[in-house]
UniProtKB/TrEMBL annotation:
Gene Ontology MF annotations: transaminase activity
Cofactor(s) annotated in UniProt: pyridoxal 5'-phosphate
Protein name (record): cysteine desulfurase
PROSITE patterns: AA_TRANSFER_CLASS_5 (PS00595)
InterPro entries for the chain: Aminotrans_V_dom (IPR000192), Aminotrans_V_PyrdxlP_BS (IPR020578), Cys_dSase_SufS (IPR010970), PyrdxlP-dep_Trfase (IPR015424), PyrdxlP-dep_Trfase_major (IPR015421), PyrdxlP-dep_Trfase_small (IPR015422)
């Protein structure tokens, strides 16, 4: 049965790439955008842009309303208790940096921060820097063979010295859901603050952060079919109150004189300066678009594509799949072939896959690899994309072996 995507035509970027002879298989890095999102961006700019939270004039009020509506839409997607628990940043990476500065006062020398072995650099390097500043220890949770955090080891490593647990919901390399509920329970038993990297997980459907009960959850718009330049930091109301302000400037103050200032609480107290207004409005449009789709049909389409991808990789000799992916993504290496050579041949054949360390260098090192090829699919991909990928793979292997 041909695997066609009923949503492909909603994404002009994928059609433009196709017309150029390009097959886009790198959605975990950034997703293509639906026309509805592009219309929202154009509508905002062409209808009269204005700054938010500052002006009483009509364009200013209109922009503020549209911007704040999006905060509600994000809160709904995440099932946050209130829209005021949603802080907009300029990216997921910025949100992690905000946390690592904002939580500085929570630590004393000798305290421990626990992360997992598969973290993206965005959920690793800010904690490394914090650990350096405060004399903390970074403890790394090992993985099992499928690519999930080993819970038995986690139970021994999350202990009385742990102050913070920062873990990914879904690995961008291994494509595996992490045992978050169990990990968060271990953390809660020790009274530990919890940070979840939802950059990949949020793409695969609505979240229920109230049920998950983490303190903080981070994700970015551009992987969620929205514009780049926008990140989301969710914080439980009580957890947000523990954050120290970190960037200072317009609209984050209640009042200021020459010598001192009094700051607002969340969310505006953490959105200093002009926020990414158009980006946030665009994210709202992408969430509307995604929310209106038949979720079961999207999940079934992605699962069928994934099965075809895994079957095709499994049928070829010498391919080592990394872990046991559960979403429409697969990272692999080929015995005796350097991933950079393979990547070069994919590029030459117009197949856009990702190669390298995927911003998770320590994980690749732990797997004994310099890099890997990653194929990641969006809801607009179809069976023909995979056929082009396999044709390119076979041709590359023929040349390289
Ligand atoms: C798991 C994970 N965390 C964090 C990030 C960082 O997101 P951004 O580059 O949007 O700041 C990414 C992006 O690749 C990711 O895959």
């Amino acid at each position: 049965m041909p695997l066609t995507s009923p949503w492909r035509r909603d994404f002009p970027g994928i059609l433009a790439l196709e017309a150029e002879g390009q097959t886009y298989l790198d959605s975990a890095a950034t997703a293509q955008k639906p026309q509805a999102m592009l219309d929202a961006l154009l509508g905002y700019y062409a209808g009269g842009a204005a700054n938010v939270h500052r002006a009483q004039h009509l364009p200013g009020e209109r922009a503020t309303r549209a911007f704040e509506d999006c905060r509600h839409k994000v809160a709904q997607r995440l099932n946050a208790a209130s829209a005021s628990e949603i802080v907009f940043t300029h990216g997921a990476t910025e949100a992690f940096n905000l946390l690592a500065y904002g939580l500085d006062d929570e630590f004393q020398a000798g305290d421990e921060i626990v992360i997992s072995a598969l973290e993206h650099h965005a959920n690793l390097l800010p904690w490394q820097q914090l650990a350096r500043r405060r004399g903390l220890k970074l403890v790394v949770l090992p993985l099992d063979s499928a690519g999930g955090v080993d819970l038995d080891q986690a139970a021994t490593l999350i202990g009385p010295r742990t102050r913070l647990l920062a873990v990914s919901q879904l690995s961008n390399v291994l494509g595996r859901w992490q045992p978050l509920t169990a990990l968060l329970a271990l953390a809660k038993a020790q009274g530990v603050l919890t940070v979840v990297d939802g950059a990949q997980g949020v793409v695969h459907g609505r979240q229920d952060l109230r049920a998950l009960d983490c303190d903080f959850y981070v994700c970015s718009s551009h992987k969620l079919y929205g514009p780049d330049g926008v990140g989301v930091l969710y914080g439980r109301a009580a957890a947000l109150q523990r954050l120290r302000h970190w960037q200072f400037g317009g609209e984050m103050v209640r009042q200021a004189d020459y010598q001192d200032a009094e700051f607002r609480g969340a969310p505006l107290g953490f959105e200093a300066g002009t926020p990414p207004i158009a980006g946030v409005i665009g994210l709202g449009a992408s969430l509307d678009y995604l929310g209106a789709l038949d979720q079961a049909a999207v999940a079934a389409h992605e699962a069928a594509l994934h099965a075809k991808l895994l079957a095709g990789l499994g049928a070829r000799e010498g391919i080592r799949l990394l872990g046991s992916p559960q979403v429409a993504l697969a990272s692999f290496v080929v015995t005796g072939v350097h991933n950079a050579d393979l990547a070069h041949l994919f590029t030459e054949q117009g197949v856009a896959v990702r190669a390298g360390h995927h911003c998770a260098m320590p994980l690749l090192q732990r797997l004994g690899l310099a890099g890997a090829i990653r194929v990641s699919l969006g809801l607009y991909n179809d069976g023909a994309d995979l056929e082009r990928f396999f044709a390119a793979l076979d041709r590359a292997l023929e040349l390289l072996r």
